[in-house]
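Protocol step 4 of 6: structure prediction from sequence.
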Amino acid sequence: MAWDTAKTKRLILDAAVSEFAAYGPEAARMDRIAATAGVNKERIYSYFGNKRQMFAIVLTTELERLAMAVPLDEKAAGDLGEYAGQVFDYHRAHPHFVRLLHWEGLHTTEGEPVVAEEERTAHYAEKIAALARTQESGRLDTRLAPRELLYSVIVLAGWWFATPQLRRMLMPDLDNDPDGQRAALVRLVRHLSGDAK
């Protein structure tokens, strides 16, 4: 029977996402990834390299998945609150994503380049440009710079999942109400972006 390399890589990648989200890049263990994926640890090294390289691949893959699932173009920028709601929905379905970003931040020295920094910066520049064009067309408030709006949306949509303890203390009525959390986020971002919907 032929070895299904694509399936094996997918199993390893899925196991690595869970491992790195739970333990971070330093405490994650390749043997646990191998056991979870049901493969020999040597396959991980041959397909993905060492642990640092594996974390980079995991993070890059997850960033690409988010970018594909929730693109920000001029149409989406026209209702930035709803776009934030869609990012919230993505994080709700993929809670590991925010954890991976936090692990990256915790294990990166200030000013040190991060995984795929140039590509990520270019991707964010495209989003900022879409926001700027939407502002120029009059469909988005111009009181905040496009980069400020984008940063706010990213932070506001993700922080619900990064610090659930704050959510519980500040908004106990919404703690177990993800639909209410989403509605609050959408209202807040619409207010920030000058959309009175």
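Step 5 (inspection) to follow. The chain has a mean pLDDT of 96.
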